[in-house]
Amino acid sequence: MACAPGKTPGYRGEIDQMQGFALNSQAHLNQIVGNLYAFRNYPYKTIDEDLAGSYRNLDIAPQEPVNIVILPGDTERGFDINGDFNPNILSYEYSPQDKMLLAHATFIPIVNGTPGEAMSIPDIPDNGYTQPETPIIPPFPPTEPTAAIVTYTWTLGSPIVAGIPGPRIPAVRNAVRMDAYVVGGTSATFNVELRNTIGTPGTDIMAGDLTATSSGATATISVMMLPGQWLWLDISAVSGAVSELVVTLTTG
Hints:
Layout: E1 2-3, H1 8-12, H2 26-40, E2 47-51, E3 66-70, E4 81-95, E5 100-109, E6 117-118, E7 150-157, E8 162-168, E9 173-183, E10 187-195, E11 203-204, E12 210-213, E13 217-225, E14 230-239, E15 244-251
Antiparallel strand pairs: 1-6, 2-5, 3-4, 4-5, 7-15, 8-14, 9-13, 9-15, 10-11, 10-12, 10-14
């Protein structure tokens, strides 16, 4: 960034964004800004001339400076022009009457202005607000894994007073609920043993026997079962013509 020289741009100037410059340094940019400021204040920004000869050395690239001298007596308003100019536009027109290719050129002045001043890029104002530091989020405490719910069900047709073996426990389980119902008849009373050896009586899971009816029966329990133990269903009473007994043990 650079600012044109003098105090006037600070009061009446405007921002002009220009791109495409190959700059060597900040001083180079300052000189370009000074030259542009001088060019925009030059009284004769362009001079148009019809060329009567063959000036093949004139071209816009590479540019060849041309010294143009116009005496005050050569213009109606008495302008005095004496300086170096670069060709900016070249055009040609064919004259069929004269059988000639006439050239027309537009020249722009070569100026050497006072270098501009470097401008520092100001900091972006924070509007009085300071961004707070991001707080450190503490790690979440580990959560205990939730055991999968596993159920064991006995379905007996025409149950009688007897003991019926159940499955063997493969892993540590916690017996949490007992549900049962009968189809037909009046009721069936039972308990479930937890045996270390399948042929040896063990410990009842429920404190007292549960009587299942057609409307169902439920008992809430909490008994730890270990791997290798067996479940054993003990039916102690059957009332009426019960056609089916369904017992479900829920573990977690």
